[in-house]
Amino acid sequence: MLLPRYPAPVVEYREEEGKEKRCITSGRNRVLELLAKRSRHSNEADEMENELHMDHLNSLEKREALETVATSCMQLNEVKVFSCVVCKYTSRKRSQLCIKQGHTTNSHYATKRFFSCKECSYKSSSYSLLPTHRCQRCKCENWERVSMIQEKKVVLDTEKLEVRGEERRFIN
């Protein structure tokens, strides 16, 4: 711990009635004594800080557990969906167009599967075995089955290492 610089201790001599001269030191020594003292309630403050720290770590553990479940989940079973008989459209919600035009809709349960485009990695989901639509980005029909959430890839410092050191653009 670095201490701030204080002036040298000031020594004062005071003469009191009936007593000899007494040396009163003030300054750095007194400040160091005060800094070294701890509060009576410092233990409770430390316990409170540790408790908050443990709560934060527990919430991070729960989040990580949910992420591992989501990265291993390839499909969701028994999802309630609505299918329009006229449009042959299936979705989680009733379509506003079908409601306005008075189409008949059936509610049933289906399996939701997750897919990724092989060309551009666009993620999509479908209630059938394969997506019936084209990719919204590149308009191709090459789909690959993937999990609900992609696993986060951690890049280590050793993997960032480049032959020429740090890359800096536009520097002469």
Automatic annotation (TrEMBL):
SMART domains: Mcm10 (SM01280). Pfam families: Mcm10, zf-CCCH_Mcm10. Residues 1-172 form the Replication factor Mcm10 C-terminal domain. It comes from the Eukaryota. GO terms for biological process: DNA replication initiation. InterPro entries: Mcm10, Rep_factor_Mcm10_C, Znf_Mcm10_C. This is Mcm10 domain-containing protein. It comes from Pristionchus pacificus (Parasitic nematode worm).
